[in-house]
Automatic annotation (TrEMBL):
PANTHER family: DUF5655 DOMAIN-CONTAINING PROTEIN, SLL5132 PROTEIN. Residues 444-606 form the GmrSD restriction endonucleases C-terminal domain. Transmembrane segments: none annotated. This is DUF262 domain-containing protein. InterPro entries: GmrSD_C, GmrSD_N. It comes from Oerskovia enterophila. The lineage of its organism: Bacteria, Bacillati, Actinomycetota, Actinomycetes, Micrococcales. Residues 10-245 form the GmrSD restriction endonucleases N-terminal domain.
Amino acid sequence: MKAGDEKLGSVFDGKVRYKIPIFQRPYVWKEEANWIPLWDDLAQAVSLVEAEGLGGEYDEQPREHFLGALVTQARSPVPRRVPTRQVIDGQQRLTTLQVFLASAFRVAAELGATSAASAFESLVRNKVADDTEYPQDRFKLVPLPTDRAAFEWAVRGPGDVRTPPSPHHLLVQAAQWFDETVRAWALEAELPTDRLDLLHFVVTERIKVVSVFLDSRDDPQVIFEALNYKGVPLDAADLVKNLLFQRLTLQGEGRLEQDLHESSWKPLDARNWREKVTTGRIARARVDTLLAYWLSSRRGELVSVEHLYAEFKVWLTGSPQPRAAEVITDLRRWADTMDELLARPMTDSVRQVIDRLEATNTTTPWPIVLSLFATEGVPDEQAVLGTEALDSFLMRRAICRLTPKDYNRLFGAVLRALKTADPRRAGQVVVDELAHQTADSRSWPTDGEFVEALMKDDLYNKVSRARLRALLTGIDTALATSRAEPGAPQKAKSNLTIEHVLPQAWRTHWPLPTEIDMDPEVAAAKRDIHVNQLGNLTLATGPLNSEMRHSAWLLKRRALQSHSLVRLTTASILSLPAGINSFTPEEWSSQWDETRIALRGLWLARVALIRWPRPMPAEDPRLT
């Protein structure tokens, strides 16, 4: 390895091609964070040279500007081809500089700065014969396939009026931004052509990079990690990608690199997988969470996103070493599975489970769910059984206010059991592992324990809002019948709010009946107990909730009848719940009181038991 500072002019001087390897991430630099600071450095350097010129002489030891590091590794020469260097680090900066130089080339040609235009062209184009077999060798940079069309447009020559291939591509936007910026900057000067000459002088003589040249014996992965893993905002997936594609070569399967990138990894570089999602309190790229879920299934223990790359590297280089090609294709299968599950309609029971996971910010079950649906040989009914068992386990424990602190170890145990189990009974394995737990931190509440918790007097204040909303939306979905109007079930995380039918501040608008046969203080205490019970809760839109607020029952009933489509309301508040025989339909909705709250609460608890059942486990071999 050799390292030293190098003038930018010599980086692009002569015939050279800088190839971005397939394991690098696509172009991601943007205006505010990257293009503006780069241009400011260049423009400042020109200003200093202009100031020197006004003084009549140029400094013998002028100030130089450094634009960061560039790490490259020589590739074996190929007959009749331009020499190639692989870019290990600095590809974003290198690509942006080529786009900037191409913009300077076009602007100089447009403004008649012939000398500057020719000079800039030599920094962007290699001189190759018109009839060459390799016309792509005319470019100084070989970007990733995903960036190639946009890059070739961004470095087009003067007079090329082609429509950009993708107006929203960052390379297209960078070219347009540098075109406008360099043109406006040049035209600020009395002699724009002279200013463009100075710009070329600065680029070639006053701007430097720290160049690191690797030979064939150097491990580029070590350099890549050292420069990027600490302090540079790379996603963990970028480091994993780098590692996997370099392992291909080490395992003698480098020939598969291009095909695997196009067929398997390329979608993981797309915008939807690079979006940030919140896991705990930290926002991570969605692809990072996928990789953590996948690695968790392979290791049989939950892997945190925070330590993803370090743990992935230990696993990949361990014994026995997995084939990188198989890992890459399997990751794609998991990504497709996750996309397919999220794209399912809300009428699908598994999509409803995922909706509750999202609404309650619960990520620990995801590796199990994906393993069930992405593993070959697992029947769909078994995958559904295991997913719904997880949902029941989580809902029952949350309503019973049991701790989630041991979920990491518990779900790790489930993953280990799945690794060695017959895939044809994978869902039953999940049921068995959960049902056979006996510790308080892992037990699956019985029907009796679940109903008792649901009937608690202060359910509204004892259960988190997100979990309580998930409970109510799940019950609402369960109440849909074949005779109901078609429509998607409510999402747990939506604009619906939890509404108390009998208001919490009932004393102002809901006075106690004058004909009660008990002490008023006792009656008030009894009513207070019922306010936050399950039987008094429903869902409503924010505007409807605000409209009703503390309204008297007849006014609230009229508002609900006019606007509410929630089955939780229409089937058990405005209508007599099926199976309750102590009221006629007319009597049920004529008023709302403690008796109706208690009866409705029991009725909803029975629905919840059906919605979140506790399946019977197979016989536990540990007890025989």
